[in-house]
Amino acid sequence: MLNPKIGVLFVSLLPGFVPAGYPVTGTTLALGGVYIALTALYCGVLIAAAGTVTRWMRTPRTRRLLDGIAGVALIGFGAKLVTER
Fold first, then answer.
1. pTM for this model (two decimals)
2. Using CA atoms, how far apart are residues 32 and 11, in angstroms rounded to an integer?
């Protein structure tokens, strides 16, 4: 409601997905409803999983693993930068 870009998306993009012969307004509203439902489901899953993921990422073993992966990635980026002309 507070983001006008979503309104522009609904008005400009969704009518292009309305099949020929179907009412534009009703079908566009239905597509918008599907978008809202999927977004609510996605956000709900993220909220439900946040606590578990946070606890998992705070364990020392996981932190060492993530630090190691980040270190290898940074070394790889550095090596690529050194070898470029």
1. 0.59
2. 10
